[in-house]
Design brief:
Order of helices and strands: EEHHHHEEEHEHEEHEEEH
Shape: globular
Radius of gyration: 18 Å
Strand order of the largest sheet: 6-7-8-9
Distance between the termini: 38 Å
Number of strands: 11
Strand content: 25-35%
């Protein structure tokens, strides 16, 4: 249901109910097989300026009330005007100040590598909200894409930044790169790391648990 419509300068925002719950998300996830492991890593794709994959993910969630499947995310992401299919194997990407021709296989591999973290972030957001431990929970694509902030939680009238990471070499690399890119602006971020042994397995995906949410609460409430 639409709750509110806001106009600000040349922007418009529609506010809707988010009816998704932790339990309904977990049931949905179980129906999404994942085959993104061991895909090729195309360095041209890795180094290209690309629109945020999270935007297509949350656009689908906004319009459908559920997250997209991996196949749907690939379809919706590549259906944006930034992409032109040149052949079954090549895609032209025009985004920001850059235009490149990249392999479709490499592009799909990058989308699939990002997909599990998008599910984990959304799941953690819902767990944080349902926990009742915080006065508010907030997600912003701009904060995510530009600042490396996955969610914010409010406690005692103050907002705290939270970054969610899987404890892998790749995640640690990106965490350190984000710290450098933002010139120390992430010094106040609470980093929550996920190991397989302390995760919740849901279908093909490893998720954070209520214990991780409680750790955030314990960090900010002491």
């Amino acid at each position: 249901m639409i709750l509110n419509v806001e106009l600000s300068n040349n922007h418009m925002r529609e506010v809707r109910d988010l009816t998704l719950s932790v339990s309904s998300l977990e049931e949905t996830i179980k129906a999404f097989p994942y085959d993104g492991e061991n895909r090729i890593k195309d360095q041209t794709v890795e180094n290209a300026q690309l629109p945020p994959i999270a935007l297509a993910f949350y656009d689908y969630l906004y319009n459908n009330g559920l997250p997209p499947s991996p196949e749907t995310l690939i379809h919706d992401y590549l259906n944006q005007p930034y992409f032109s299919l040149l052949s079954p194997s090549q895609v032209r990407v025009s985004y920001g100040s850059e235009t490149k021709v990249v392999s479709r296989e490499g592009l799909e591999a990058r989308i699939l590598r990002t997909y599990p973290s998008l599910l984990r972030d959304l799941h953690f957001y819902l767990m944080s909200y349902e926990s009742g431990l915080f006065e508010g929970v907030w997600y912003s694509l701009d904060d995510d894409f530009k600042k490396g902030i996955d969610i914010k939680v409010r406690y005692n009238g103050k907002w705290f930044n939270v970054a969610l990471l899987q404890n892998t070499r790749r995640s640690i690399f990106f965490r350190n790169r984000k710290k450098t890119r933002h010139n120390g602006s992430n010094a106040d971020v609470i980093y929550v790391e996920l190991d397989q042994q302390d995760s919740k397995k849901c279908g093909d995906y490893y998720l954070f648990t209520k214990t991780h949410v409680k750790k955030v609460y314990n960090t900010i409430s002491r």
